[in-house]
Amino acid sequence: MYWLPRILSVLFTCFIGMFALDAFSEGGGFWTMLLGFGVHLIPMFVLALLTVISWKREWIAVVVYTVLAAAYWTNFSAKPLWVLTIAGPMILLAALYLVGWLFRRNLRPAGA
């Protein structure tokens, strides 16, 4: 239970990073596509930073994932499949990090 939210957070970050590949289907010149790719990678970098910060401070992930899920849900409520695909995992990750935070003394491996 200690590793589950961390592993899923890394996988979710990779999943969000895959959406950056859409920049290459928009057309345009090489530099335009490369710039679009970099801009599309910003959410992935934010989630990667969140994963690193919350590795030992689970409560930060609980707060940030909950806020991000609520913001996404608010902005894209007309597209329920999108909300389920993006906000759903964030809510699950917030819940898993919450369990890890509340029971950290019992779940944390020795030396962590």
Sum this structure up briefly.
With 112 residues, the protein is an all-alpha fold. The protein has helices spanning 3-18, 30-40, 42-53, 58-75, 80-102, 104-107. It is elongated.
Question: Which structural traits does this protein have?
Answer:
75% helix; mainly alpha; single chain; elongated; 112 residues
What's the layout of helices and strands?
Blueprint: H1 3-18, H2 30-40, H3 42-53, H4 58-75, H5 80-102, H6 104-107
Helix pairs in contact: 1-3, 1-5, 4-5
Describe the protein's architecture and organization:
- It contains 6 helices and no strands.
- With 112 residues, it is mostly helical.
- The mean pLDDT is 89.
Q: N-to-C terminal Cα separation, in Å?
A: 14 Å
Largest sheet data: none
Tally of helical segments: 6
Rounded radius of gyration (Å): 16 Å
For the record, the count of structural domains works out to 1
* Secondary-structure element order, N to C: HHHHHH
Please state the average pLDDT score: 89
Determine the structural class based on helices, strands and strand pairing. mainly alpha
Helix content: over 70%
Total strand count, please? 0
Task: Label the overall shape.
Answer: elongated
> Runs with pLDDT <50, length 5+?
none
The percent range for strand residues is: under 5%
